[in-house]
Amino acid sequence: MFTGIIEEKAVIEKMEQTNNAMVLTIQANTIMKDIHLGDSISVNGVCLTVTSIDGHCFTVDVMPETMKDTSLRMLKQGAAVNVERAMPADGRFGGHFVSGHVDATGTIRTITPVENAYYITIELPKNIMPYMMVKGSVTVDGISLTVFGADAENNLLTISIIPHTWQETVLSDKHAGDPVNIETDMLMKYTEHLLRADKKNESSITTSTLKENGFI
């Protein structure tokens, strides 16, 4: 579990890629002070497991499914990535519930600086637009953000970034056309799942099933 508060920008030191999988060696500083084998690390919003540690570097395996469903497959050696360690049970909770399970990738359409903010418009797959609620939560490349605008007709999400977040995350390296990892609000997904289950159970109760079970 993560909070979406990025701890630092790390750097891809090495990439070992096969057709469908990849091993990343990532150089970091802040998080290396307390990192262990088997720890969960969010890398651009993707939950990955630390498989080795060497000085200021750690490695993670990227499985075929993760390669297919996230923007990690687009990374290049030397690229910066957002990293966050898993949230400690006794730690501060500054963002929102983030699982590190990416729902989709979006494409940046525009980046507009306005006084003390940057407006970023992202085109999303149609199927996740219902989760975009103005003033709700969304995770973009691992960053906990607030939905500033949601244009369901054109499948566009708008987020507003303060200068600190812009400078301290990989968003400052992005351009129009770049992909970003999107994770929708976990609580909204759980609520939807439960409501669907209730609806399914209700629809399965018919006169025939009541009669078969001796109720009528």
TrEMBL record:
PROSITE patterns with a match to the protein in the record: LUMAZINE_BIND
The keyword Cytoplasm is assigned to this record: no
Keywords attached to this entry: Repeat, Riboflavin biosynthesis, Transferase
Start-end of each Lumazine-binding repeat: 1-96, 97-195
MF terms (GO), sorted A to Z: riboflavin synthase activity
Coiled-coil residue windows: none
Gene Ontology BP annotations: riboflavin biosynthetic process
A Pfam family this chain is assigned to: Lum_binding
EC number: 2.5.1.9
Domain Lumazine-binding: 1-96, 97-195
Pathway assignment: Cofactor biosynthesis; riboflavin biosynthesis; riboflavin from 2-hydroxy-3-oxobutyl phosphate and 5-amino-6-(D-ribitylamino)uracil: step 2/2
InterPro entries hit by this protein: ATP_synth_asu-like_sf (IPR023366), Lumazine-bd (IPR001783), Lumazine-bd_dom (IPR026017), Riboflavin_synthase-like_b-brl (IPR017938)
Assembly behavior: Homotrimer.
Job of this protein: Catalyzes the dismutation of two molecules of 6,7-dimethyl-8-ribityllumazine, resulting in the formation of riboflavin and 5-amino-6-(D-ribitylamino)uracil.
PANTHER family noted in UniProt: RIBOFLAVIN SYNTHASE (PTHR21098:SF12), RIBOFLAVIN SYNTHASE ALPHA CHAIN (PTHR21098)
Name of the protein: Riboflavin synthase
Originating organism: Alteribacillus persepolensis
